[in-house]
Design a protein that fits this description.
By secondary structure, this protein is mostly helical. The protein has one domain. The chain is 84% helix and 0% strand. The chain starts with a helix and ends with a helix.
């Protein structure tokens, strides 16, 4: 990924972030962002602009997915019956989860790799009110962009070296931290009910 960003330029970062946020679960948007922020620490670009453009790309990508999900979300899976059969239960669970925890899910989900790619579409399918969606989408994008960009910038060369060696380690650590946080939240809610 370092080679891609350095070879094609920093403009590739917002494009990849947009595609990931618009529904591409295997598009390396966050990885490109981390690489760009790390390269900025070495004098290749200004971190403020990289974060700002990345946040805007993520917000626009998720909003595009929301619009598609809201207008065509239920019709798209129905166009492919085999796809609808395989995804129906997962979509129903996701829709129920978003209806119960929409704002929190939209905010925290920005930090979870695969979930990040489905947030906009599922919020649209779940008919989350547009104003609520926009507020929490932008808040999540800003928090994610500032946290990830700043961390990558200050860690700098170590991040670039790690990404070149093993992308999965960084994603695994981030996923473990987020799962631990979500698990603690669920445990707290269950103990409050008891």
């Amino acid at each position: 990924m370092t080679h891609v960003v350095s070879h094609y330029g920093l403009w590739v970062v917002p494009a990849l972030v947009f595609l990931e946020a618009a529904g591409g679960p295997f598009v390396p948007g966050e990885t490109a962002f981390v690489v760009a922020a790390a390269l900025a620490s070495q004098g290749h670009g200004r971190i403020e602009w990289i974060i700002a453009v990345t946040v805007a790309s993520a917000a626009v990508g998720t909003t595009a997915a929301y619009a598609v999900g809201r207008s065509r979300g239920r019709a798209l899976p129905a166009a492919w019956p085999w796809f609808e059969r395989r995804t129906r239960s997962g979509l129903e669970r996701s829709q129920s989860f978003l209806q119960r925890n929409g704002a929190k899910a939209l905010f925290v989900g920005r930090f979870v790799p695969i979930l990040r790619a489905t947030l906009g579409w599922m919020a649209g399918v779940s008919r989350m009110p547009p104003r609520r969606f926009l507020v929490w989408n932008v808040a999540g994008c800003v928090a994610w962009g500032c946290a990830v960009g700043t961390a990558a910038y200050y860690v700098g060369q170590a991040v670039v070296d790690t990404i070149e060696r093993d992308v999965g380690v960084g994603a695994g650590v981030l996923a473990a931290v987020l799962l631990a946080f979500l698990g603690a939240q669920l445990l707290l809610k269950r103990t409050e009910r008891a």
